[in-house]
Amino acid sequence: MNLRVILLVFVIFIFAVGFGVMSYSESLGIPLKQAYDNGKVTVVQNTTAGTIPHVITIKNNDTKPVKVQKGDILKSNSSQDLVIAENSNIPKNSTENINAYCFEPTQQAVAGAKLQPSTNTASSQIKQIITDSNPSDIQNATSAQLQIWTVVSGGNLTIYSGEPAALVDKRGITFSKLRQELTDAKSSVMSMFNVTSDGLNNLAQNNTTTSSGDIQSLFNGFIDWVKGSLGI
């Protein structure tokens, strides 16, 4: 076969794949971080300190849907950092409340504070905890929150200040009760990820990952989309 024909076919193939990936990505919505950077989205802390799970309000002023994913991290200078606990596609020109877990236990949440999507996402371990949790079930969500705190603190959480102290006050429990629940959460995390106490420190040091790590997930999703479209 003529070399020029081969090159032409190759270029057409690359263009088709690129267009397909773009179409697939667009069908999922614009990533939250991108929409925020474009000035099309506002994110506000909705709940007070000690709430599990927290609720954030996302207003999408874009003409396209905005994609919110479990593990997306929200930063704040006046409140605490949060990690989103559910997937959602927020329709254009609409507002939606989204569940989130506390990602920065040393700080207390401040209702009404503005939040900013981070360039990083939560680690695979924290995403697994979130995926296995049920934010609609208070007991289950509380267990997940304590496990997340265990990971981000390396199992050395200070309970007399920050969000843990607010949790004690809001639930009307003793610090001894919270300490026991954290001990149980620590055991669960160590068993779940097959790590020792030293391993918890490693998890704490690597509790986030760059968003570029989602490229493989996007590609895998695209392949599944192509298969579904072709009936494979």
Walk me through this protein's architecture.
It is a single chain. The chain is an alpha+beta fold and 232 residues long. The chain has one domain. Helices cover 47% and strands 21% of the residues. The protein is built from eight helices and ten strands. The strands form two sheets. The protein has a six-stranded antiparallel β-barrel. A three-stranded mixed sheet has the order 1-4-7. The radius of gyration is 21 Å and the shape is globular. About 7% of the residues have low confidence. It holds the Pfam family ARPP-1. InterPro entries: ARPP-1 (IPR046699).
**First-to-last CA distance:** 29 Å
Count of DSSP H/I helices? 8
Taking all residues together, what is the mean pLDDT? 86
Uncertain stretches: 15-25, 212-217
Q: What are the SSEs and their pairings?
A:
Layout: H1 3-28, E1 30-31, H2 32-37, E2 41-45, E3 54-60, E4 66-68, E5 72-75, E6 82-84, E7 88-90, E8 94-102, E9 114-122, H3 124-132, H4 138-153, H5 162-171, H6 175-192, H7 197-205, E10 208-210, H8 215-230
Parallel strand pairs: 1-4
Antiparallel strand pairs: 2-3, 2-9, 3-8, 4-7, 5-6, 5-9, 6-8, 9-10
Helix pairs in contact: 1-8, 3-4, 4-6, 4-7
Summed up:
By secondary structure, the protein is of the alpha+beta class. Helix content is 47%, strand content 21%.
List keywords for this structure.
232 residues, alpha+beta, 6-stranded antiparallel barrel, 3-stranded mixed beta sheet, 8 helices, 21% strand
